[in-house]
Amino acid sequence: MAPTTYAVDPLPAGPPWRSWEEVGEEAAALQGVYAPVHSVPFGARNRIVVAPGDSRSMTLIPDKCAGYCRGVDGRNGPNLACEGCGQAVATRVDDCGQWQAVWLEPDAVGRRPSALPAGPTPGWDDLERAEHRVAPVEPDGSWSRRWEAAAGVALAHLVVATEGRPVTLPSGPVAELLGHAVGRYLPAAGPGARSLALAGPGIGAPRPRPDVLLVPRHPLTGASWRPPGDEGAVVPMDSGVWAYLAHPGETSPMPATGVLPEGVLRDDYALPPRPWYPLTPHHRAFAHTLARLPAVRLPGLRGFRDACR
């Protein structure tokens, strides 16, 4: 989470955990899990996640701090207690390979106004701003972890939208950056192939409409963008990642005097780093998302159910 932001997970999350075999398909579906998984969460709904640096007045509970590496992973439930009363109120996660976060228990905390002025409410127009775009490559030359997660989530929705059929990608950034990731789960060509195109704020939707639109999630509500009156299949994507695909930025083709235009690189500077391997979707993000889409129970998608474990 970015500093001063928060999100709410409407689905049950965290311990206690029960095995899929113990719970059964119907009870698991009530928990928002529709495909066999190793364990089904029975924690609270509407847990609130914040950046660790935004947490205050909490202390670790030593016997709840299990982890795999040099951090804590939250496997034992809330591991942060209120400094004032000692009640367990949140779970800190910062083990290797996990997003650093603090999850607040909804029944243990209350909302209080900060007395600070609220920032501007983000809207669809913000996606066209350069600062909203998320670059696909980290400064060290590796793929962005946010891109890997976003690709995993989007691919789960794409598998459902295409019912596991082949998909053709539009030329340009989508094919160049996501082609390998899509190829890991769906065939690139074949009978009954579905067409995919980028659509959203600032670019609209192509005509005629392709089978599936790759659209952004709203940066505040998480709702998927849709053309007015459209009811066709869409694949939602992280708005910052989508913004880079739709508005990657351009350099001016006209000669410039004085300072260089924004986005123009000097020829005596080193080029930006590029990974030596193609973008690979985060498998846990793919599996977690796919298991929570009701359509995964359709007969045509049963071959993907094993990927959810």
Characterization of the model:
The structure is a single chain. The chain is an alpha/beta fold. The protein is built from six helices and twelve strands. The protein has helices spanning 20-23, 25-30, 145-162, 173-183, 239-246, 283-291; strands at residues 6-9, 17-19, 39-41, 47-50, 58-60, 80-82, 88-93, 101-104, 167-168, 194-198, 212-216, 233-237. The strands form three sheets. Strands 1-4-8-7-6-5 form a six-stranded antiparallel β-sheet, with no helix packed on it. A four-stranded parallel β-sheet has the order 9-10-11-12. Strand 6 and strand 7 (88-93) form a beta hairpin. Helix 3 runs parallel beside helix 6. The protein is globular, with a radius of gyration of 22 Å. It starts with 5 loop residues before the first strand and ends in an 18-residue tail after the last helix. The model has no long low-confidence stretch (mean pLDDT 88).
Short characterization:
By secondary structure, the protein is α/β, with parallel strands linked by helices. The chain has helices at 20-23, 25-30, 145-162, 173-183, 239-246, 283-291, and strands at residues 6-9, 17-19, 39-41, 47-50, 58-60, 80-82, 88-93, 101-104, 167-168, 194-198, 212-216, 233-237.
